[in-house]
Amino acid sequence: MPENVLITGGAGFIGSTLAKRLVADGHRVTVLDSLISQVHGDDPATTSPLLQSLEGVADVRVGTVTSTDDLRGALEGATIVVHLAAETGTGQSMYEIDRYVEANVGGTAKLLNLLTNEPHTVRRIVVASSRSIYGEGSYRTESGDIVHPPHRSADDMAAGDFDVHLPGAGPLTMVPTPETALLHPSSVYGITKQTQESLIMTTAPAIGIEAVSLRYQNVYGPGQSLKNPYTGILSIFSTLIRQGKAINIFEDGEESRDFVYIDDVVEATFLACVTPGVSASVINVGSGVKTTVVEVVDALFRAYGTEVPVTISGNFRVGDIRHNVADTTRLREILGYEARVGFAEGIEKFAAWVLTEPLEEDGYERSLAEMAVRNLLK
């Protein structure tokens, strides 16, 4: 049965690709997006390929989730809501606190307030949560216990000790983090995503709406913003390589993430929309594979066929975590899906796309300066 799907933040990287997937399956899509310049440029109609890609695909409404009127209009006739709208960026969230809380928490509250108090046709909400809500994630002690260490000390990191520690536990080994792990985010962004998820997973069932939370890992692939300095190291490093500029690797380069390709994220999200019997599910969406920053740089050098100078500087950002890799058991068991695009293949596809894009100023150095002046970059 065709659904009417509202995607908040739907003109972004994930949302625009998801819209095409849903329409290809016969569903109708409405997009609500504020088209912020940080993502879409100063004149989105001409500077945003993501927005342009939705022409003839979705009913695009320019508006914000912080406006009840904008939400009300976009929700008309919707049966499923995919709530992607959020300010994203761990570093930026630490000094644009009001903006992040207003959009991520306030916008979610307005959505739920409207659904609670006014007539609607929504039967399911799928919310984009984040691996950032786990903080440092899960580790195993020498004795085999699973623990969730506290945030790293700035003093330790300034001294070159970037590992996580738990007093009295001895050396710790990172293990995949399941959805049952302790939630203790280390950034404002993480706090807002945890709150966003909690609001929806608590309120929606209480008012008769099915709710699914997808905890995305580090999403990458063609269509990712190359000019937004808060989208992640793959875009940042790609631009530096194309510019012939040196790469500064923070910490010791052994920090790692779970990189998951855009097609896998979109398919998992699509399944969360249309699969029956998944209400009240919280699901990690990742590859389940650890990749270090040093490995990322090496992979990009191979993909672009060129290298630039690299410095492993020991710099660090307040709020960053050391490691996080998803336990993807629930992804397989609940949605019947597992990531299909490995990192090596995904990087090749990503780099091939990057080389077709214009080389633009990305604002990365400015973003670092903004953090440094606030003592958030050491």
Please give a quick description of this structure.
It is built from 15 helices and 16 strands. With 378 residues, it is an alpha/beta fold.
Notes on the structure:
The N and C termini lie far apart (54 Å). This protein has helices at 13-24, 37-40, 44-47, 49-52, 68-75, 90-93, 97-117, 154-158, 188-206, 233-243, 262-274, 293-304, 329-335, 343-354, 364-373; strands at residues 4-8, 28-33, 59-62, 80-83, 124-130, 139-140, 146-147, 173-174, 210-216, 218-220, 247-249, 256-257, 259-261, 281-285, 291-292, 310-312. With 378 residues, it is α/β, with parallel strands linked by helices. The strands form five sheets. A seven-stranded parallel β-sheet has the order 3-2-1-4-5-9-14, with helices on both faces. A three-stranded antiparallel β-sheet has the order 7-6-8, with no helix packed on it. It has a two-stranded parallel ribbon with strand order 10-13.
Work out the oligomeric state of the chains in this entry: single chain
What number is the mean pLDDT?
Answer: 94
- Unreliably modeled segments: none
Q: For the largest beta sheet, what order do the strands appear in spatially?
A: 3-2-1-4-5-9-14
Radius of gyration: 20 Å
- From the spread of the alpha carbons, the general shape counts as globular
Describe this protein with a few key phrases.
alpha/beta, 39% helix, seven-stranded parallel β-sheet, single chain, three-stranded antiparallel β-sheet, 378 residues
